[in-house]
Amino acid sequence: MIDIKHLSKYFNDQKVLDDITLHVNAGEIFAIVGHSGAGKSTLLRCINGLEGFSEGSVNVLGQEVKHLNESGLGALRSQIGMIFQNFSLLNQKNVYDNIALPMKVWGYSKEKIQRRVNELLKLVGLEAKKFVYPKELSGGQKQRVAIARALTLNPKILLSDEATSALDPNTTKSILELLQEINTQLGVTIIIVTHEMDVVKKVASRALLLEDGKVIGLGRIEELFLRPDEKMMRFLGEDEELPQEGVNIRLFFPSNVSYQPIVTQMARALNLNFNIVWGKLEKLNDHVVGSLVINIDEHNARLITAYLQDKTEVIWEIL
Amino acid sequence: MEQSILNFYEKSMSMKQVLIDAVIETLTMSLVSTLLATLIGFILAIVLIVTDKNGISPHRYTYKILDVAINMLRSFPFIILIIVLFPVTKFLVGKHTGTFAMIVPLTIGTAPFIARMIEGAFKEVDRSVIEAAKSFGTNKLQIIFRVLLPEAFPSIISAITLSLIIIIGFSAMAGTVGGGGLGAVAMNYGYYRFDGTYIFWTVFILIVLVQIFQSLGDFLYKIVKH
Q1: Which residue pairs, CB below 8 angstroms and at least 24 apart, start in A104-111?
Q2: CB-CB under 8 Å, A149 with B226
Q3: How much is the pTM?
Q4: What ipTM does this complex have?
């Protein structure tokens, strides 16, 4: 669906995107995560050609973006919806006209526009606000209008640029649920740019972590969040305080085992006491995964690892 | 006694007629000039906003040339501009005095001002709205007429109101160098014949005109602004 290879971009002499390679599959929700200034919005804009780039290739829906002329780019953009942090609605147009604008631009008939806009108003739950102007809407409602507008032309891809960053937690949740609905019911591939980890954990299946224009992590979010490497831990601002003596073993609980009483079972079966020194549980895409660090003296460590290996599905590593 | 009353009556009748004619001339000059200056200013503003370095189709030289030309025209004191433009006025209208002739310098003198005001109104439009429009494939012409223009429209109404009021003031000034209207009346009857009543009435009428147009502009702004 989207294939980015060795993409680099310079602003003057500064490298804002550095050799980025990534592939987004059709139908997934993919997150681009990073702190502000990491280049994530720039990367997103390379996908629909709102930003140019210096090196590499961006292939979207089978078309090489840098080879497209103005009308080719326009045609590609009609298949890619986009929503923004500050909603970007036309304040002088009411909800109906805002949602209708892309179809008007592409010269659709009045009847077609009317049918589509009513359909979308229903989808985003704003039928009652049809003729209201943006200034009378709340932030969440404005973003719903923006989402409806982004979907007007039946796009295959939806780009979301910090779409929930200006919203309160409850509104964020409802907008994310709407995006999930759009993803599953309409089959729209969604790419989310955000600096909020909670957003990533809630909706994304895979994520790309960006720092100073460089990729520092790419993969399924279970892996990224549960088995973070050093860079990733620094990125998340997490550091662990582990005892110096004995052996520290980290256990990972994938979602299928996170509800089993593995730790207490193990303690009883081996008749061993060990220290739980670190741990966390995460809700990722509606299932719970977790990790736990236990500390034990050296000569008992092998018993534990043998038990984990033979009797459980837990993934483990010695720290 | 009888004679003096009759004199007074005749005098006030003729003053009334003079003032009515002057108001019509002033309104004609001001409204026609505002209309023409707005048309020219609007086109200039669009060229400015499009060729601006952050515009939708940047073109450095076009922008710079227009920028300097507009600044030059705006730095002329208006009364000097009228005189400088005498040959142009004569070429376009056939003479350089009178109500219709004054439309030429009034238009040329205020079009750059209106261009700047409309450019400002366009610049106020949130850049991210333009980006959003681009994101669904809007072409450059559509961005101007379907996004920039509707979004900037209320501010453009304010700009036109302000310009009309400035043009009314300028038109009175034009009256002193051969234009018609209230300015000419104040000059010819009030200043040269030392008749204070003319001065009083022209000023009074100008105040009322300005009030009416400002209120009308504010009212229109309120209707179109959402």
Answers
A1: A104/B146, A105/B133, A105/B136, A105/B137, A105/B138, A105/B139, A105/B142, A105/B146, A106/A78, A106/A153, A106/B137
A2: no
A3: 0.83
A4: 0.81
